[in-house]
Automatic annotation (TrEMBL):
Keywords: Membrane, Transmembrane, Transmembrane helix. The keyword Transmembrane helix applies. One of its GO terms (cellular component) is membrane. Pfam families: DUF1295 (PF06966). Gene3D superfamilies: 1.20.120.1630. It comes from the Bacteria. This is Steroid 5-alpha reductase family enzyme.
Length: 267
């Protein structure tokens, strides 16, 4: 990248941060009006999609067209599918217990605490995790093996996430499964195949950007995403919730991999 491209990328990063914050503030307004801050989960995917579209527009004339469109389409498809899935899954439900517990600890006004600790914090994470997408859109080098490898990993991840979400939704739609644990399909090999797929999506997007030094330097983005999914807010919180509400979940934990899909262990 020459000096002009670096300047354009810096402007892009600033604009994309503003876009992420705007999405967060809009989600905050909706969540506050409805008294359901779980709307922020829908805004998660939409924020990434908005940044990808913004970067596609701003990077016109800078990056390789194929790479720009591939990384944008991959991000938008992933983000929109996730937003629609979460919105459909949460319809008719009250507040998410995670946010109830978080806001119960608010030292002052719960509304402004929610803005800071839920919406604006998430907006910052969206911006940071999306850095590989932003950088890839400004990469003018010819299409190479990194793009193909990244697209392949993205496809695996997207498939895992979409299929496992569908399997779980179908399982929950059957009243006979109330209180039971899904341990078939992809859920036989991982307790959280959707989270694993999500992580693969972002490693794939990183690989698309990793052909040059600027893109390779964004490796912290998929690492942060994987950390949150596997060790911070994803798997640990879900395992704790399921252990409290599903009698058979302890046995499921003993025989099923927590994240990476593996053959089940003997009980």
């Amino acid at each position: 990248m020459n000096h002009t491209v670096w300047q354009a990328l810096a402007v892009n990063a600033a604009v994309c941060l503003a876009v992420a914050l705007t999405v967060g503030v809009i989600a905050f307004a909706v969540g506050t009006a409805r008294q359901r801050h779980r709307v922020v989960d829908v805004a998660w995917g939409l924020g990434f999609a908005a940044i990808a579209v913004t970067g596609l527009y701003l990077s016109e004339g800078h990056g390789d067209p194929v790479r720009r469109w591939v990384v944008t389409a991959a991000t938008v498809v992933w983000g929109i599918r996730l937003a629609v899935h979460i919105g459909w899954r949460s319809r008719g439900h009250g507040e998410d217990p995670r946010y109830e517990r978080l806001l119960a600890k608010a030292p002052g006004d719960r509304t402004w605490y929610a803005l800071r600790m839920v919406y604006l914090l998430q907006a910052g994470l969206i911006w940071f995790i999306s850095l590989p997408v932003q950088v890839a859109q400004y990469d003018a080098s010819d299409v190479d093996g990194w793009l193909y490898a990244g697209a392949a990993v993205w496809l695996v991840g997207f498939g895992f996430e979409a299929v496992s979400d569908h399997q779980l939704a179908r399982f929950r739609s059957d009243p006979a499964n109330r209180g039971r644990v899904l341990d078939s399909g992809l859920w036989r090999y991982s307790r959280h195949p959707n989270y694993f797929g999500d992580a693969c999506v972002w490693w794939g997007l990183f690989l698309i950007a990793a052909g040059g030094l600027p893109g390779a330097a964004t490796v912290l983005s998929p690492l942060v995403m994987t950390y949150f999914l596997a060790a911070k807010t994803g798997r640990p919180l879900m395992d704790a919730h399921m252990s409290r509400t599903r009698p058979g979940y302890a046995d499921y934990i003993r025989r099923t991999s927590g994240f990476i899909p593996l053959p089940p262990r003997r009980s």
